[in-house]
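Workshop exercise sheet. Pairs work together: one partner reads the sequence aloud, the other fills in the structure field after running the prediction. Swap roles for the next sheet.
Pair: D.N. / O.F.
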Amino acid sequence: MERQRSFSFKPTRLLLFSFTIFSAIIFLCFFSIWVMTAVPSNARVQFSEPLVNLVPTPVNVETLSGFSRKNSGDGVKKPIVIDAHLRKRENASGSASISVFEGIQRRDNESEVSDEDTNKNGAVDGNFTTGQESVSNSTSFEKIEVHTDQRIEEKKNRECALWKGRWVFDESYPLYTNQSCPFIDEGFDCGGNGRLDKDYMKWRWQPQDCDIPRFNASRMLELIRGKRLVFVGDSINRNQWESMLCLLFGAAKDPKKVYERHGRKITKEKGNYSFKFVDYKCTVEYYVSHFLVHEGKARVGQKRVQTLRIDSIDRGSSRWRGADIVVFNTAHWWSHFKTKAGVNYYQEGNQVHARLDVLTAFRKALTTWASWVDKHINPGKTRVFFRSSAPSYFRGGQWNSGGHCKEATQPLNETFNFDYPEKSIIAEEVIKQMKTPVTFLNITSLSQYRIDGHPSIFGRKPEKAYSSSIQDCSHWCLPGVPDTWNELLYFHLQSTRKKRFRE
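Structure field:
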């Protein structure tokens, strides 16, 4: 008979087995506690609503200008289409974390559209586009997990496209009146010249992706304390300069301590002004320069004719040097009418071009200006701005042939589509090649909608009113649109100061 096997354990094996089981239990307990404490409560999955929304969400893409160059072939703008897929809705409290999977489809980098320009059927400015028509050059999928508050903070911190937004009616505007500011010359004093409607003064620009601060005159004066703020350019820059004077004057404790250093009264005839704010030891100056380059004369055949030296900076440039903040512009005078259609007008060296295209001459002149800035401006001392061209609105003709804008009392609808001016494109291209940092102050896009902001027939006193065939649809009423340009300038100066303080 076989002997029965024994199933007893030796003492050492029993001890080893018990220790292993006990260690595993202890490890599982500690691991469970660590998991519970490490995962935040707001990241735990909630199933109270659908996890994903399969409806594509359009996202905008903008170039620096906010507008695109026209296609040379058919003139039709081709939109960039970006679709975001599988986007989880936030819960009612707005505090849940989100996961986003984005599929990006790019059709063409020459143009862009905004949400407001796209209707439910995919119509964009009269041209139709669908998701199927878009050709995908690249597709990326990225999972993003962020808290709502964190997304808001990132929205505040990222660079904002200031030119992209809308006009909002705001009863708290204007920031001054023609009664409170003595510096508005006759051509911009629409209220004083008989314009009765007031709405054109009450529109505030609201960028889409950020907020810009309301202009604070006291803070602005502190920013320029002991400094020179200089505007150089044509009469549109004088428009902006007068706006700045009016904005700052409201914070002056003693009006008698704000005066023109040479006793000049502001008119459209005299070109150079320097206003001193005594309590802040600063000046706000304007120097006329229609083209930024030298207007002279040269002999053509037997005659001496007026020419524009597009290879030589304006003779008054010595006054611009040493400024702490300088705002340049030129565009308004670069028309075929004001440049004799380019016939025997543009000069380089001793050569007067028999004929030269205005845009070619404009680029050459801006290159001359850029070279002067790179050579004579110290970027450690001077902050340089270049303001883009301001739109004109002459319906039914030009300024001297029956063009008008009298009927406009409200901004144009946001669905209007505008071509970005070629001169502004050229200016951006020239600035990008410069060694000196220059901030391009893009006011073209936002000003395009403000057909209601021009003086029209209210650019003179009623007793000196224009004839019915002449209206001013180029300059701007004050208070008005140029105040917004200065709010953008203030925003840039504020941002620079904060950045330097953090550094």
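Discussion prompt: Residues 11-38 form the longest helix (28 residues). What would you look at next?
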